[in-house]
Design goal:
Blueprint: H1 6-12, H2 27-36, E1 45-46, H3 67-70, H4 73-76, E2 88-93, E3 98-105, E4 118-119, E5 129-130, E6 133-139, E7 145-153, H5 159-168, E8 188-199, E9 202-211, E10 217-227, E11 245-248, E12 257-264, E13 268-275, E14 284-288, H6 294-298, H7 310-315, E15 328-329, E16 331-340, E17 345-354, E18 362-363, E19 371-372, H8 375-379, H9 381-401, H10 408-423, E20 425-431, H11 432-437, E21 461-467, H12 479-489, H13 494-503, H14 531-541, H15 550-571, E22 602-605, H16 607-628, H17 634-653, E23 662-663, E24 668-669, E25 671-675, E26 680-683, H18 688-691, E27 697-701, H19 702-706, H20 709-721, H21 723-726, E28 730-731, E29 739-743, H22 747-757, E30 764-765, E31 768-769, H23 775-778, E32 781-785, E33 788-792, H24 816-833, E34 838-840, E35 848-850, H25 851-863, H26 882-885, E36 898-899, E37 906-907, H27 913-916, H28 918-926
Antiparallel strand pairs: 1-2, 2-3, 3-10, 4-5, 6-7, 7-8, 8-9, 9-17, 10-16, 11-12, 11-15, 12-13, 13-17, 14-16, 18-19, 20-21, 22-25, 23-24, 25-26, 27-29, 28-29, 30-31, 32-33, 34-35, 36-37
Helix pairs in contact: 1-2, 10-28, 12-13, 12-14, 12-28, 13-14, 14-15, 15-16, 16-17, 17-20, 24-25, 25-28
């Protein structure tokens, strides 16, 4: 008997219960299986719509590269984008062709709210900053169910106040947020948007509006459907360039529902149905074209009288001629006007389906092919049943993913973290060659760009769904962010995690020289090499041993070897196994901008750059040994990485003038400037730079090594014949007779580093490990060289420098990815040293803990950032009282970029759930649950 599909199973029994066998089944996992095996395209539709396309590098065709000014927020409603789209609570297909989102007007704003507002990099006193209140509440990995919540003030949105007040604030002042303006005190709307899939191409949308104000009020609600503009540019990669169309279906009984038919040359035929919510508030269908209002922006005649900003002009300005009276175009909305008493709610429903996946209906014969529709089949009990079942299935799915030992609050936090991670997928489109050269039907870009930003990446062809750091503040990928994203994603969708990791190693992403693209603003910049680590974690965390995806691992290994070679050739200028790399994703952590020329003649050797390469080495060794279990060809590569790791460890720990990076006097690793005159200058800043050497740790087991005779023979030869290098390996005598430890610090060095790490006067915060020692609060590091004064002081919250735009700060706050690496590394040290090694934690407390217990201790501190304290306040929310006192806010969470080193308050990008979603891993990790997505990261398990 054939196994029923996920859809069939979902619709024949409530809550995923097999009535015949009474076994708990999981339709969401079945959908994942069907999608993975290409039996059904469940991921075709998802939250792939960006929350900010304006102000991005992709849309910048200026001569000076000032992307913020070239296409600002005020132009976004009137200007067709070239490379993508943006919207509120939006979804689109995986190629961003057809988009569905939400627009709102509170009757007082000057702008129809079709996209999220925020300050640009130059406007914000701490860089770019979204000024909206929105939350990713829930999502399954196939996006069969999703929920998003937006809070919209009932009074005029304070655009000017937010911009002008922030412009008056200095970098030493806090950011001025929407909550600070007082506009919410007069009331606001809660707008909840839910999506559910009946089938892969049959999408239900339900908008629930609640009046959270003190009096009756009116809200205009405009669910909007539109095609991305691909027809005006002459794009060779968007099909034939035929213009798609949306058209009102006539012949449908008025007062029941509205219908729109859509056609696209590669997407096919779709129908959008809009429900009439009540006789008092029937929606109107408004049509226009998704094309630039050239008359408004540039003073030249527009290509069409119906342009992108028509709905704004119609609703806000009362310009009725702005929309197409013939009911056709490439952008359509259903215009609802709702009036609600305080506390009252209304739900507005629509449904989008592909022609062959229509709801139950019959088709009338004839040329026009009009629908004889039964409204109940589209919006009746069936609609509510699908919504309810998908929500129940989401509950069942997360019931398996999350440890049953997690409490209610812990489960809520983990689930919202994973929801945010899944909502932050985005269709990302950027073809550098076309961007540099321009389009057939458009003006030629300025000549300056041919030798400017990203000009050496003309092979890059990005047209994929990619996991973003933050779809507003960072609506472009960052390669090291993405690596951490996948470790969390593997908890819920290992297939997508693998695909993302392999994507960045493909020839249309990776540079021919082996470099992985860094991020949109500078593809040739350098992020830490954590890709290999993520691949091993996803490989081990996605399946039990014996059933793992060796093909995935082998594909990755060969491309990673190219990337490793690029690092060795480009970032070890003297061939001494001491590496640079520049800022390495840590923005302002250095004494000066490490990506620019030094303030003194010489070279910079970086403790973190060298540690990252040692880390890369041991992961590649681990990967080679794993592959060698099935194919002995990989033993030679294992030997290569084994020896290279020992060489790096020898270099970083070497003593003597002008040699290693370990400072014996302080017991810490530092960056060093090697001056041209032969002298060396340590940059004695105690920061994560000096803790990064902890990450490079691997435990080998003699029995497994003997099963690989080629590698075992070479390793024994090296240990016997190169005692100078063999001294860098701890083995045999420690942790029992069968284990070998490969690590950067010796046992003594490890203990000295841990004294800093676990000291609350240094790195240990109540909420995790700080990025800079607190000792620099009273004792800043000062470097006076070349007539300039450079200073590094402890700043626990937002940055007080303009390095890298000033929007991120690594001089004190807590960062989840680095904390997670510390936590997992300590587990591996414990695997070797065992319970016999105990350290005082916190320093001065008298409590002696194993390194496994220290790891759990740190994970619990990280988790506490999001859990309510005795007064109900969650540290991540800082002093915003609504989250503590108001039931409409209490369960909502924001997953920030980083967190205040003293208070745990969220800082930086407010929706950078990507790597902060590692919180979910930490929650499971603290309870020893198998789905932590961690992997032991040894050659045995």
């Amino acid at each position: 008997m054939a196994q029923p599909s996920a859809r069939e199973m979902a619709n024949q029994a409530p809550a995923g219960v097999d009535r015949e066998n009474q076994n708990i089944i999981d339709p969401e996992n079945l959908r994942l299986k069907e999608d993975r095996s290409r039996l059904a395209n469940w991921k075709r539709w998802g939250p792939y719509l960006s929350e900010r396309q304006w102000g991005t590098v992709r849309e910048d065709y200026s001569p000076d590269g000032d992307c913020w000014s070239y296409l600002p927020h005020d132009q976004a409603r009137s200007r067709a984008y070239r490379w993508g789209e943006d919207g509120i609570a939006g979804v689109c297909d995986r190629q961003g062709r057809l988009c569905l989102g939400l627009a709102l007007w509170n009757t007082r704003d000057t702008i129809l709210k079709e996209r999220l507002y925020g300050l640009t990099g130059p406007q914000g006193n701490h860089g770019e900053d979204v000024k909206e209140l929105y939350y990713y509440v829930d999502s399954t990995p196939t996006h069969s169910y999703m929920r998003y919540l937006y809070k919209y003030p009932q009074q005029q949105y304070p655009y000017s106040d937010l911009e002008h007040t922030n412009s008056r604030r200095t970098i030493h002042d806090p950011e001025y947020e929407l909550e600070d303006t007082g506009v919410l005190e007069a009331g606001y709307w809660d707008v909840s948007v839910e999506y559910a899939k009946d089938s892969p191409n049959n999408l239900l949308m339900e908008i629930t509006v609640t009046n959270q104000g003190p009096k009756e009020d009116i809200l205009h609600v405009l669910p909007t459907l539109w095609y991305r503009n691909t027809w005006v540019w002459g794009c060779s990669h968007e099909g034939c360039g035929l213009k798609p169309k949306l058209e009102k279906v006539s012949g449908v009984k008025e007062g029941s529902l509205k219908l729109v038919n859509g056609w696209h040359e590669t997407l096919g035929k779709y129908t959008w149905a809009v429900e009439q919510s009540s006789k008092e508030a029937p929606p109107s269908l408004l049509f226009t074209e998704n094309e630039t209002n050239s008359q408004k922006l540039f003073g030249v005649e527009s290509h069409t009288p119906y342009v992108k900003d028509a709905f704004h002009r119609y609703v806000v300005d009362g310009e009725k001629s702005a929309v197409n009276p013939r009911g056709r175009g490439t952008k359509v909305c259903a215009h609802y006007v709702v009036c609600l008493a305080p506390g009252a709610s209304i739900s507005l429903r629509s449904r989008l389906w592909q022609e062959d996946e229509a709801p139950k209906a019959t088709r009338e014969a004839g040329d026009k092919g009009l629908y004889l529709l039964q409204e109940g089949e589209i919006f009746g009990q069936g609609f509510a049943t699908i919504m309810r079942r998908r929500k129940e299935e989401a509950d069942a799915f997360y019931g398996q993913v999350l440890s049953p030992r997690l409490g209610l609050e812990e489960r809520r936090v983990a689930r919202q973290a994973l929801a945010g991670l899944l909502w932050t997928k985005q269709f990302y489109h950027y073809i550098v060659k076309d961007w540099l050269g321009g389009d057939r039907y458009q003006p030629t870009p300025p000549e300056s760009r041919l030798n400017g930003r990203n000009s050496e990446w003309q092979h890059l062809y990005n047209r994929d769904v990619v996991s973003m750091p933050d779809k507003w503040e960072y609506p472009w990928y960052a390669s090291w962010d993405l690596a951490f994203h996948t470790v969390a994603l593997a908890m819920v969708d290992s297939s997508f995690a693998k695909d993302q990791l392999l994507l960045f190693l493909r020839e249309w992403y990776m540079h021919p020289n082996g470099q992985i693209p860094a991020y949109e603003f500078a593809l040739d910049d350098v992020n830490p090499p954590v890709h290999a680590w993520a691949i091993m974690n996803v490989y081990r965390g996605s399946a039990p041993r014996g059933s793992r995806d060796a093909t995935f691992l082998a594909k990755a290994f060969h491309k990673l070897s190219l990337n490793f070679t690029w690092w060795v050739n480009r970032k070890d200028p003297n061939g001494r196994n001491l590496f640079g790399g520049g800022f390495l994703g840590l923005d302002n952590i250095g004494v000066f901008d490490r990506s620019r020329p030094l303030p003194v003649a010489g070279q910079l050797e970086q403790a973190d750059g060298t540690a990252w390469m040692a880390f890369f080495c041991v992961v590649m060794l681990d990967m080679a040994l794993t592959l060698a279990e099935q194919d002995p060809v990989y033993e030679d590569m294992a030997s290569k990485y084994f020896e290279h790791f020992i060489l790096i460890v020898d270099a970083i720990n070497a003593s003597g003038q002008g040699r290693g990076l370990w400072n014996e006097e302080d017991g810490f690793y530092y960056d060093y400037i090697r001056k041209d005159d032969g002298t060396s200058m340590p940059l004695k800043v105690r920061s994560l730079v000096g803790l990064a050497p902890l990450f490079a740790v691997l435990v080998l087991v003699r029995e497994e090594m003997r099963a690989l005779p080629g590698f075992y023979k070479r390793a024994r030869w090296l240990i016997k014949n190169r005692p100078d290098l063999a001294s860098r390996v701890t083995f045999l005598s420690e942790g029992g007779s069968d284990r070998m430890l490969l690590a950067v610090p010796t046992k003594d060095q490890l203990l000295r580093l841990l004294r800093y790490l676990l000291d609350e006067k240094e790195f240990l915060s109540p909420y995790g490990i700080r990025s800079l020692s607190k000792v620099h609060k009273d004792s800043p590091f000062v470097l006076e060289v070349g007539g300039q004064r450079h200073e590094v002081s402890y700043v626990p919250g937002e940055s007080n420098t303009h390095l890298f735009g000033g929007n991120s700060n690594w001089r004190g706050p807590i960062w989840f990815p680095m904390n997670f690496l510390i936590i997992t590394s300590l587990k591996r040290y414990h695997f070797f040293y065992g319970d016999g090694l105990r350290v005082e934690c916190p320093v001065g407390s008298g409590n002696l803990l194993t390194l496994e217990e220290v790891s759990t201790f740190l994970a619990r501190r990280l988790v506490s950032i999001f859990l309510p304290g005795p007064d109900g306040a969650r540290p991540c929310h800082g002093e915003v009282g609504q989250y503590r006192d108001d039931p409409a806010w209490r369960d909502l969470l924001l997953f920030h970029e980083y967190f205040d080193g003293e208070t745990g308050r969220g800082c930086g990008a407010s929706h950078q759930t990507g790597w902060t979603a590692l919180l979910a891993n930490c929650l499971n990790l603290t309870l020893g649950y198998s789905h932590a997505g961690l992997g032991r990261y040894t050659s045995v398990e």
